[in-house]
Amino acid sequence: MEREAGPEPVTELDEVTAELGGRTVLRGVSLTVGRGEVVALLGANGSGKSTVVRAVVGQVPVTGGGLRLFGHPVRSFGDWSRVGYVPQRSTAAGGVPATVREVVAAGRLARRRLRPLRRADRAAVDRAIERVGLAERAGEPVDALSGGQHQRVLIARALTAEPELLIMDEPLAGVDLDSQRVLAETLRTQVEGGASVLLVLHELGPLAPLIDRAVVLGHGRVERTVDRPALLPEGSHPCHPADELEPSAEPTLQTGVL
Ligand SMILES: Nc1ncnc2c1ncn2[C@@H]1O[C@H](COP(=O)(O)OP(=O)(O)OP(=O)(O)O)[C@@H](O)[C@H]1O
């Protein structure tokens, strides 16, 4: 694939296609996340954002094109401890009997490749819980938490693994503004430490200053790419407010803040 010089690619999609339920959902998506970059996927409901990230984490098989993680084809990639994934909330919540600390510690276990946690690991778990503002709830079962608090637990779980590539599907959904700011600050620290981030967003919110590139999807394709979207004038941030009801329709370009 032709590429401009830039940071070493951590994730590369080259004309990726994917099908779900017998329907083509990704129609040739190309994008790259370089080391230390933060890339946001934007677009209307149904444009294919979640499918892109689920393809990157190997949950949706790619039917065409190339998808590489840390230089390896995703099909043969085996070092998943380098990747942290926070799925869309609705797919992860509910009926979990574990406590907040146990769920977050599971993230650290992945980093330790299932070897027992040491004192430093336990301290990292407590730090992650504190960062997302749940220190006082650490011993409670996660199913006793609100939706937004649950989301913060999943974020802490991903952060405590200190992954090289952090993938988050709408991490801000249902999270109050204060917690969004906490997440932005935490992400900034991770990125300063060299992490790369690919995340699905509906609006940039407090994460805007962190984002190197916004990739706007429409109908399973990249409609456009915007560098440093925070530098755009207020009101022209790249979001797409409408649902995509008819996937075969011609894509239309819209801008606006949701
Ligand atoms: N399991 C499935 N079977 C069939 N079609 C699916 C399945 N999951 C998703 N789709 C379809 O694939 C398309 C893309 O879905 P996807 O979840 O990737 O969109 P999205 O951009 O993440 O949307 P949202 O903003 O609503 O989360 C949609 O038209 C959706 O209906």
Please provide a written account of the structure.
The structure is a single chain. The chain has one domain (9-231): P-loop containing nucleotide triphosphate hydrolases (Rossmann fold), CATH 3.40.50.300. 24% of the residues lie in helices and 26% in strands. The chain has five helices and ten strands; from the N terminus they run βββαβββαααβαβββ. It has a six-stranded mixed β-sheet with strand order 6-7-8-3-9-10, sandwiched between helices. Strands 2-1-4-5 form a four-stranded antiparallel β-sheet. The chain binds adenosine-5'-triphosphate. Adenosine-5'-triphosphate is lined by residues 20-21, 23, 25, 43, 45-51, 247.
Radius of gyration: 18 Å
Find the CATH superfamily. P-loop containing nucleotide triphosphate hydrolases
Helix content: 10-25%
End-to-end gap: 35 Å
CATH architecture annotation: 3-Layer(aba) Sandwich
Task: Please give the CATH class.
Answer: Alpha Beta
Shape: globular
Strand content: 25-35%
Task: Give the H and E element order.
Answer: EEEHEEEHHHEHEEE
Number of strands: 10
Structural class: alpha/beta
**Widest sheet: strand order?**
6-7-8-3-9-10
Unreliable runs, pLDDT <50, ≥5 residues?
A: 246-258
Tally of domains: 1
